[in-house]
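REQUEST FORM: STRUCTURE PREDICTION
Request ID: SP-0412
Submitted by: Lab K.M.
Chain count: 1
Length (residues): 226
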Amino acid sequence: MKLLLTSGGVTNASIRSALVRLLGRPVDECRALCIPTAQWGHPMCNPTSVRGFARPSRAGSTRRAWGGGSLGVLELTALPTIGAERYVPWIREADVLLVDGGDATYLCHWMRESGLVDLLPSLSDTVWVGVSAGSMVMTPRIGSYFVEWPSAPDDRTLGVVDFSVFPHLVDGTVEVISEGRWRKFGAWARGQEPSSPYAGRPCRHSYVPGDVSITSWGYAPRTRAR
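STATUS: Completed
RESULT:
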């Protein structure tokens, strides 16, 4: 599987170009499934925010996050009840899995429970477009700062990549990172060692097995373990 790990989705030209390179063809020719599952694990998310992610309209957040061709919805919490013979073909037919934010530990739990995590190694041509927690779930740990799901046993996630990410370091259009925000990032980064944390706004990490590249439309500080 190819990974495009973003803070807020396909929100600018550089991120869109990275997506096109990973797909190998125009985004408008591709099929995507959006996965809103992580939202259910976060107290700030609700049915309205899930609808905002899944609704395919120009004004909606999904078009901002995806900006491509056909779009469907894949809810991981439903998959264990309907059988792999139904949902596995849906996943294999998709060019892109667009995975929304929320709580990454909740998403990790349902990726395992649904069987999706077991499918990932066989999806060699599929692009995983992570949005916030949808990106963080691929890292080894997210840090206690980002754990909102009360039933999470700890902050560990899938560990598909060997670095951690701090999304939304700068919010909105503000280009100045506050001192308080920097302190939070610093405390989080120290807790993530020995992995290499990244942060940015809006930023993306492209990952093909054995190859990681980073592009930021703004800030992308990186810290290394001592």
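NOTES: The two ends are 30 Å apart (CA to CA).
Reviewed by: T.R.
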